[in-house]
Fold this sequence. Notes:
Jelly Rolls, 39% strand, 6% helix, 5-stranded antiparallel β-sheet, mainly beta, 6-stranded antiparallel β-sheet, 13 strands
Amino acid sequence: MAVHLTKTDLDGVLIFVPDYFYDNRGYYCETFSERSLKNAGFVPPRFVQDNQSLSLKPGIVRGIHFQINPKPQSKLVRCTRGKVFDVVVDLRKDSPTFKKWIGVELSEENQKQIWIPNWCGHAFMTLTENCIVQYKVDELYYPEYDRAIQFDDPDINVIWPIKNPVKSQKDIKAPYLKDSDVNFTMEMSKR
């Protein structure tokens, strides 16, 4: 089994596509293989939790979310039903790419997975009904370190495919980046 790795414009953010094997019954794949990732040049962390969300309709936005130090989370994210526009933002205040973002379509058809380092914010917007997003994290959830910033923060300026999305109360109340207590630095990317 193999996984195909592609670098993105944000340092450390990677796209993975595992091999799928199809026959008359359907398909088989290894959605996560430490050996395949190592063979592709990436050493994965020890994952401690798997998460899954269901979003019922198009135009739901979740994020921009992250956990601050000392409990930041790296994530390996994939969409197993439907289609989402997935966004990653560099939140290291001393990084040359601070506030830069990338957007990647994740879907059950393209089978892409995105690796999000623990110094990044993460969000996604649903493009179809009944989207299921699954992700592995390398740190447990700690509500006291859980943070969000506005999905439409003008300092980040993500270009979202759908206007006026549906948001949770947490995301409605989220501050802008300039008012947040984000505490990520370049030192984190050396760990």
